[in-house]
């Protein structure tokens, strides 16, 4: 075992045969893994983006609209991002988490407002039970403002991550156009509502866990941003709440999982919802997942799209800046969230 003063959970629990008490969830808040729906037929829709910018656009927009309405989650294939870009990112991410502790700790911080930081759990400053996760969080847009802060080790880290970030940003912008159209809004309505845009990435590292039924990689939460594009390796662990039941999302290589965040719920005036999801761990294998949180810039004013507000559909949220929302999200901590963090922004 590593010395008990290791800040990162992967160092603290290395070689552990039991889950240390700070990671054990109270009995009413455990994953109940035997009740999770594992059937691929019950999982989230898989949308083929082939010819999205051509002959299949209206068909795909219909599929996106249905998936947003019924699930808040979907997967995409034929998205146009090269497999090598994805494989290189997953490889360099794993390499980073296998560096010696002293090397990784160079970017450690518990301050959620830092634009680059390696940390552990969710927000160690406010939570009572820890999550079985370490994570590296990077701001990625505009790239030239942040890339110099990123780890210089592994040597290809900056190049591999930057290539991926640029491609994923392109995909996010295209999908946001599709979502705008699915809501009957102008194609660029949502992209314009995000002002200068923000893009954050987390590289989540979940080591194997001797007692996965006692803890979470991440407990149920919604994402604070507008949309998330999640890349996961081949291990699996993401579960999505559907009809009151947790449904496992089996990894499909080189696809992305796309989910709506709290800002989309506001912009769409609740036509689309931000859905609870969680990450569970397993006893055999380490797991990497890499969400890209696509977001408004902090100064963007978020409110329901005027076209989606009328006498029958009054505005359900007041206007607020994303900066106001985001500070509240981190300060609350993930355990205290029941559903979204949107309560204080509702009109009644
Ligand atoms: O690891 C996963 O599959 C989910 C990650 C996630 O929900 C997050 O980082 O917010």
Automatic annotation (TrEMBL):
SUPFAM superfamilies xref list: Clavaminate synthase-like
**What cofactor is this protein dependent on?**
L-ascorbate
Which class of enzymes does this protein belong to?
oxidoreductase
Its EC number is 1.14.11.9
The protein's annotated catalytic reaction(s) are: salicylate + NADH + O2 + H(+) = 2,3-dihydroxybenzoate + NAD(+) + H2O
Can the keyword Oxidoreductase be found in this entry's annotation? yes
Q: Which family does it belong to?
A: Belongs to the iron/ascorbate-dependent oxidoreductase family.
Name of protein = Putative flavanone 3-dioxygenase
């Amino acid at each position: 075992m590593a010395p008990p003063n290791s800040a990162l959970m992967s160092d603290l629990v290395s070689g552990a045969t039991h889950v240390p008490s700070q990671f054990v969830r109270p009995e009413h808040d455990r994953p109940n893994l035997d009740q999770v729906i594992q059937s691929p037929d019950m999982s989230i829709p898989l949308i083929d983006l082939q010819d999205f910018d051509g002959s299949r656009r209206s068909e795909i927009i219909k599929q996106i609209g249905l998936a947003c309405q019924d699930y808040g989650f979907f997967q995409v294939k034929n998205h146009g991002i090269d497999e090598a870009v994805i494989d290189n990112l997953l490889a360099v991410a794993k390499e980073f988490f296998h560096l010696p502790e002293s090397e990784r700790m160079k970017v450690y911080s518990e301050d959620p407002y830092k634009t680059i930081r390696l940390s552990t759990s969710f927000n160690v400053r406010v939570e009572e039970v820890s999550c079985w996760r370490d994570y590296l969080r990077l701001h990625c847009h505009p790239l030239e403002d942040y890339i110099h802060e990123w780890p210089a080790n592994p040597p290809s880290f900056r190049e591999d991550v930057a290539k991926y970030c640029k491609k994923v940003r392109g995909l996010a912008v295209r999908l946001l156009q599709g979502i705008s159209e699915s809501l009957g809004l102008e194609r660029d309505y949502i992209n314009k509502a995000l002002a200068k845009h923000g893009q954050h990435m987390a590289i989540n590292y979940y080591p194997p866990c001797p007692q996965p039924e006692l803890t979470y990689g991440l407990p149920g939460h919604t994402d604070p941003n507008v949309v998330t594009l999640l890349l996961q390796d081949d291990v699996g662990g993401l579960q999505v709440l559907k009809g009151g039941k947790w449904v496992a999302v089996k990894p499909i290589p080189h696809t992305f999982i796309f989910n709506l965040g709290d800002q989309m719920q506001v912009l769409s005036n609740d036509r689309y919802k931000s859905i609870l999801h969680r990450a569970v761990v397993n006893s055999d294998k380490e797991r990497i997942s890499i969400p890209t949180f696509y977001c408004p810039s902090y100064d963007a004013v978020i409110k329901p799209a005027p076209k989606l507000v009328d006498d029958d559909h009054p505005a359900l949220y007041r206007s607020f800046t994303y900066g106001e929302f985001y500070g509240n999200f981190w300060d609350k901590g993930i355990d205290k969230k029941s559903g979204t963090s949107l309560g204080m922004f509702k009109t009644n």
